[in-house]
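Hi support team,

I'm opening this ticket because the web form for multi-chain structure prediction keeps timing out on my end. I have pasted the exact lines I submitted so you can reproduce it. The total is 826 residues across two entries, so I didn't expect it to be a heavy job. Is there a limit I'm missing, or should I split the entries? Thanks in advance, R.K.
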Amino acid sequence: MTGTKAAFFNVQPVASALDTLFQHWTPELRTEKLDTRQALGRVLAAAPLSPMHLPSFRRSTMDGYAVRAADTYGASQSLPAYLTCVGTITMGTETTGDIQSGQAVLIHTGGMLPISADAVVMIERTQAIGENEIEVLSPAAPGENVVQIGEDVTLNEAILPVGHRLRAQDIGGLLAVGILSVEVVKPPRVGILSSGDELIVPDEQPSPGQIRDINTYTLAGLLQEAGGKIVSLGIARDEMEHFLMLAQNSFPSCDLLVITAGSSMSTRDLTCEVITKLGKPGILQHGLAVKPGKPTIIAVCNDKPVIGLPGNPVSAFLVALQIVVPLIKRLLHEASRPAATVRATLASNIPSTAGREDMIPVHLISQNGGFVAEPVFGKSNLIYTLVKADGLLHIPLNQTGLKAGATVEVTLF
Amino acid sequence: MTGTKAAFFNVQPVASALDTLFQHWTPELRTEKLDTRQALGRVLAAAPLSPMHLPSFRRSTMDGYAVRAADTYGASQSLPAYLTCVGTITMGTETTGDIQSGQAVLIHTGGMLPISADAVVMIERTQAIGENEIEVLSPAAPGENVVQIGEDVTLNEAILPVGHRLRAQDIGGLLAVGILSVEVVKPPRVGILSSGDELIVPDEQPSPGQIRDINTYTLAGLLQEAGGKIVSLGIARDEMEHFLMLAQNSFPSCDLLVITAGSSMSTRDLTCEVITKLGKPGILQHGLAVKPGKPTIIAVCNDKPVIGLPGNPVSAFLVALQIVVPLIKRLLHEASRPAATVRATLASNIPSTAGREDMIPVHLISQNGGFVAEPVFGKSNLIYTLVKADGLLHIPLNQTGLKAGATVEVTLF
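Hello R.K., no limit was hit. The queue was backed up. Here is the completed structure from your submission:
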C-alpha cells in the first residue's frame, strides 16, 4: 500500500506531449456552409475569392468637384483655374453624363465619377463665382480623391485564408463583395466527463464528505469560448461499469473527450483503465512537467484525442488551457494568432524548479499608469485562487523562478 | 455652394467628448436573474455572498495518511515514527470514525479528515510494514496537506464584485458554493441605422453607383461582442421623412442608437436634423480630434446616447471601437479591465499631427521570436485595410508620429 506511482511518472513537457499526440492523430475536416451574417467567430474552411472588383466604379472620397486633372494644372490662390459646373452627380445611380475640358461636376463622397473625370477637387479648395462657374484654387493630380475600380479588392483575389477566424470587419469585407455564405469548420464536439464518488451536481446540497462538481462547468465555459460544442456526459462513479458506460455511450458522438479524474489515486487508475478500453492506441503519455497538472493523461483512442485531467478544479482548468484549447484549435484547423498580454511588474519572488513549467495565477493592480502583478496565494486546488486572479503568469521549462520587480507578461483569463 | 462646414468642426478629443456625454447621461441599471450555468460573459448586477464555507469539511490535498501531527515529531528516515493504520477513509461520505494517538488512517485526495487528525502525511513519505503498521519517514506540521474549513471561501464572503464580467472560473466558483442563479445586467439594446441613397442590402446586385451596406453588419459584430443586443433598423434613404420614420420607430426600444451617416455632406446634415428631432438635449458635439472619424456626432436624446458615425466603413468601425464600445460597457455597468496588447517593432515611420489621435491598422509579422508591425496602406475608407490588419496602433493626441524601429503596443481586433 505504499504506492509511489505518482513519483514514477515519466513526465514530459507540454509541448512534447502535444507533439506525441499529433504524431498519432490527424483531425478530420468537417465543414458546413453558413450565412455570412451568422459566421462571426467561425473558422474558414475554404478561401473565398472575390467575385467582383470593389468598388466596381470609380468613387469620390470627398465632397467636391469631379474634374479633368489637366484642367487644374498650375492653379493657385492668386491664379485659379476657372471651370464651368455642368451639374451634380446623383448618389446611388449610374453617372451617364460626362464632362468636357473646362468643365466640372459637383460630386459627393461615394459618388460615381463621369468617364472623363480623373480627379476630385475638395470643395474647400474651390470658390463659387456666379451660378455655374467655380474657381479651383490648387491643382489636382490625376487620381486624387478617387478610389479606383478594384482598389479595395480585385476580382478573383483570395480575400481571406483558410483557418482564419472571422471577425466583424471580415464579415463586412465578405458582404461588401456579395459573398453571402461561407464554408466554415463545424464546431468540434467536446465531451466532458467528471468522475469521483465525492462529487454531486451543483443543485444538490452536499453532505459532509461531498463537494459540488464544478469541472463540468468551468471546462464547458473555457472550451466553448475556444470554439468547442460541449457535450456534458455527467458524473461517473468510482466504479468501472458506470464510468465506462458513460464514456462509451457518448464517445462516438464526440471529436474529443475530456475526463476529469476523481481526486483520489484509485480513481486515477480507474480513469486509465477506462481510457484504455476506449480504443487503440490508448494512453500515450501519463505525466506532464507542469505545475499544477502533473498527473495529466494524454491518449488517442479510435482516432480521437482523450485527455485525462487532474480532478482538482484549478489543475483541470489550467491544464485544459494548455492542452485542450490547442486541440480544439487543431480540430478547427485554426491558424495561430499572436497572443496579447498585459505587461506588469512582479510584486514578489516566485520560485520554480528547472525542468518544469509553472502556471501562476496573478492579480493585476493598477499603479503609476502601469500594472503590478501579485501572485494569488493559496493552495493550488482552491478554485477561488482562479476567481480572484486576473490572469496567468507562465514560467517556462528552464527558468528557476522570477524575482520581485521583474517585468512579466500576464495572459488575461 | 462652397460650404466649408467640415473645416469648421470644433473638434474635441475622444476622451473629452465622452466626458461631455457622461455629464448629460446616466445609464439606468436594468437587471435580470439568470441560471449561473447560462451566465458566462454576463456582468454581475449584485455582489453574491457565499452561503457557506468552502470546503465545508477538512479535506486532504494528497493521497496519504491522516495523522495527529504530534505523533510524527522528529520522525526521519533513520528514526521513523510507527503508527497503526486503523482503516481507510471512504470518498464522498462523512468520516465518523476517529483516530487516537499513535493511529493513522489511509486517506485519498479530497477525503474528509477524522476529527482528531490535523495533518496528512504524503504516501511517498511512508513505508508499510506488515498489514496494519506504517513507518512515517518525516514529520508533518499541523495543517500540512489539509484544506481547512472555509479556506477556499468563507460564509458570507463577497465573492465577486458588481460590474464583474463572469468568466469560466467564476461560474465554477459560484456553483461550488451552490449559487445557482445570479443577478446580471440585461444586454443593452443597440439600434443600428445605416443611411445613404447609394446603399443596398448585401443580397442585392449593385448597379453602377451603388454599393452594399456593410456598416450594419460590421457594427453589429463589434457591438454584439462588446455585450450589446443588436436591433437592426435598416437603411434610411437620404430624405427626411423615411430617415426620421426609421429612427423614431425603433428609438423607444433601444438603449443606444448608432446612425451611420451617408457619405455625402448633405446626408450628414440630414443626420444632424434627424438626431435633433429625436429629443433633448440633442447634439452635444460634432467633430472628433481623431483620424479617421472626424465628422462623428455625439448626442443625447431623451436620456439615451445617439452616435452619428461617419458613413465610410473604416471610420465607422474605428470610431465605434473608441466611442460606442465604451458606451456599451457603461450601459453594462462593467468594471474596466486591463487591456492586453502585442508588443511589436514598427516597420516604417508613421507621421501624425499633434492634437489629433490616429488609429493605424497594422499587420503583424512573426520575426525572430517577436513581431513586426507593418502599417496597412491604402485609402482610409477601404474595408480591406481592416480585413488585412491584425490589430490597431493608437497614436495619442500629443504625439507627432512614430519612427520605424520603435517598440509599439498593438491592440488585436
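A quick check on our side: Chain B touches chain A through 111 residues (CB under 8 Å). Let us know if the file doesn't open in your viewer.
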